[in-house]
Every structure is written in structure tokens, then in C-alpha cells.
Amino acid sequence: MRRIVLFGGASAVGKTAVLARLIPRLRERGMAPCVCKIDCAACDDASVLAAGGVPVVTGVSVDTCPDHYLVSNLVEMRMWAESRGADTLLIETAGLCNRCSPATWRMLAGCVVDATASCKAPAHLGPMLSQADFAVITKVDMVSQAEREIVCQAIADVNPRAALFPVDGLAGYGIEALVRYVAASSETSDYEDDVLRHTMPAGVCSYCVGERRVGAAFQQGVVDKMDFGEEAACAR
Fold it and tell me: pTM of the predicted model, to two decimals?
């Protein structure tokens, strides 16, 4: 294993389409990628990735946060990739709460952003974007040049260090720059003692472990209550 590359992002932003374009180009460069795809309820597009002729394994987190699920299985993912003779492990995960990020310091971390979403969307992506090494901007064929620049600036406001790659996942526009970036990224074979770039949420509440009843009497664990005495707190 020479590198692990993470592709995070909200649902339906085009992560799978980007990977489907990326995989054959990496193989043309003599690289041997494989893919781990993490989903929440069902995974019905793994065949799209497998069509690229690479090993693909899927994990469905069901009742578990997909990012927690990914981190809990990260070492096993790496072992699986090595058993398949891969030198590059591509991981696709579905961000949900925008508070988690499964990125570690020894992987190359990316965030996929939909260009057609609100220009305010990047500010709500949390560590998934703020801790990323690069950002892929998808669906650029559906916005104007001016709108694209606004999205790029919104991303830069959150993470000025991130490399930006506008990509049309359907037509393949812009993918070559991303291919060169991934291929030129630093290699490492030492993933021992790797650590997360950002902490996960604080803990477990009763609803995390199956409680369905509503009310203070049924809330245990880490419970954070709103302060209704400060009505405009978010505006400050």
C-alpha cells in the first residue's frame, strides 16, 4: 500500500461518478487501485466502480454513523487492499451530520462538493471540508463560470489550503488534473499509529443505541440541550 485516498461528501454530489472516471486513468499510469465504498442504508452502485476492472468491497453502516463505521473498519480495509495487491486504496464515504470526518493524517483526504448547491453549503460541511487536502467540485457543467468562481471562493473561505478540482463526472471534464494530483501525492507504507485529523462527536446518547421514546426521562448518555434564552444565538 502506497496511499489511501478518501472521497467524502454529502449524498448525491457525484462521488461515485468521479471515482468511475478516476479509476481507469490511474490504471493507465500503472497504478493498482481498489475501492471501499461505505453507504448508509443500501449500496446499489458498486457495480459502476467494479466496471473499472478493480477490486471493490462495500460496507453498509445501517444503524451506525457511516464515518464511525469507516474508522472502525479502516485497518481491515487496508489489510483487504493489500491482500488484493493494490497500491492505492480509494475510499468513498457518505457524510451525514457534517460534524464527522474519518480523515486521518496519513491518508490523502478529499471532499466532493456539488456546484449546484447553495453557495452557503461549503460553510456547513464542517471538518469534512475544513480538514481536507483537496476538494472536487462536481456538476460544473450546470453552472456559469461566475457561479463556479463563487463556489470556489466559498470553499476557499472554509479551507484556503485545499487544492480545487472542478470536474464534470459524466463527461470527464477536469478529471486529468485530479489524476495527476493523486498520482503525485506522497507515498507511505507506514500506517501504524495513524490518528484522526479531527475528533468525532462527543459520545453516545440513548437514541444512538435504539431508544425511540421521546422525553427527558428517556434521554441518557451525552445529551446537549438548547438554550432558549438566547433566541438569536446562531446569528451572532
Answer: 0.89
List strands edge to edge, sheet with 3-9.
56-60, 33-39, 88-92, 3-9, 108-114, 134-138, 163-166
How confident is the prediction along the chain (236 residues), in pLDDT tens digits per residue? 799 999 998 888 999 999 999 999 999 999 999 999 988 877 777 788 888 899 999 888 877 788 888 888 998 999 999 999 999 999 998 766 677 888 999 999 999 999 999 899 999 999 999 999 999 999 999 999 999 999 999 999 999 999 999 998 788 889 999 999 999 998 887 788 899 999 887 677 787 778 889 888 888 887 777 667 655 554 44
Element spanning 129, H or E? helix 127-130
3-state secondary structure of 104: strand
Residue 197, phi then psi, degrees to nearest 5: -75, -25
